[in-house]
Amino acid sequence: MHLECDRIGVHESVDDVFPPEKLVDYLDDLPVAVEVVGDADVEACDAVVTLEHRDAFLEVDWIHSIQAGVDRFPFDALEDAGIVLTNSTGIHDRTVGETVASYLLAFSRRLHDHVANQGERRWDQPAWNEAFTLPGTTACVLGTGTLGRGVADVLGSLGVRTVGVRRSADPVSGFEEVYANDDLLEAVADADFVIVTLPLTEATRHLVDHEVFETMDEDAYFVNVGRGPVVDEAALIDALESGAIAGAALDVFETEPLPAESPLWGIDEVIVSPHCAAFTEDYFRDVGDLVRENVDRLAEGDPFHNRVV
């Protein structure tokens, strides 16, 4: 396929993550026009960089998602229209890894309790056996892609033994052991932390269900930085309220924003963050580098990097 790219629109939806003007300025050296666009302006673009999908995007030639996850985009419609979809896989490994490490450190050093106590001006030290250190613990990471490897890299530096779960049990660098999906229950049974980094697909939807939580140790913590619907949220709430697991750190949810009436807001030992595990002041630069690379590839007639459709 031969594509022409003379005008790139940075869609205003990226403002949820970074100011779109920052990306426009960062790409001012490109040999194409780059500007901020709203829904009404998309039709004049050859390409669009976006957080969300709009039906108007079906008129462009190339869409770039600023996230790695692309479950919000209509693959069939894009294929029928001959539209290229690329994503931002590869830029979130360190940021998400550090976020996951911060969750584990909060639980082990009881930092979330201290923050809550400070809000109430309450001096309340943890019990002698509440706090622990991370070396010697085991984390089971569901998904050994870019995010999973980033988590394994950061946790490994903290002395955490990290095992992975993926389609096959073939070894993956950074993981001390790898389980196939069919052995998921065996993988989570002895883990101190179970961490989801998976994208949402038909195969992963509600992969983490009642059976998984029942298999986990009652002292284990659950973390989700992948996609909310990978987890059966009702089953998670049941596990937390019944004490089947020790707690959870959640950055993604089945419904976002998390509804005010969700029990997750008020359950002890639950940390809620607003889908921001990958946020960093360099986010727009990381996305810009991917866009710049693909503009260069397009000019040279080379295949797109990170092409999804």
Q: What's the short story on this structure?
A:
With 309 residues, this protein is α/β, with parallel strands linked by helices.
What does this structure look like?
The chain has 309 residues and is of the alpha/beta class. It folds into two domains: 7-91 and 280-300, 3-Layer(aba) Sandwich (Rossmann fold), CATH 3.40.50; 93-272, NAD(P)-binding Rossmann-like Domain (Rossmann fold, 3-Layer(aba) Sandwich), CATH 3.40.50. It has helices at residues 20-26, 75-81, 93-109, 111-119, 146-157, 184-189, 210-215, 233-242, 283-300, and strands at 7-11, 33-37, 47-50, 62-65, 84-86, 138-142, 161-166, 177-180, 193-196, 221-224, 247-250, 270-272. Strands 8-7-6-9-10-11-12 form a seven-stranded parallel beta sheet. A five-stranded parallel beta sheet has the order 2-1-3-4-5, with helices on one face. Helix 8 (233-242) links the parallel strand 10 (221-224) and strand 11. It is globular, with a radius of gyration of 21 Å. The model has no long low-confidence stretch (mean pLDDT 97).
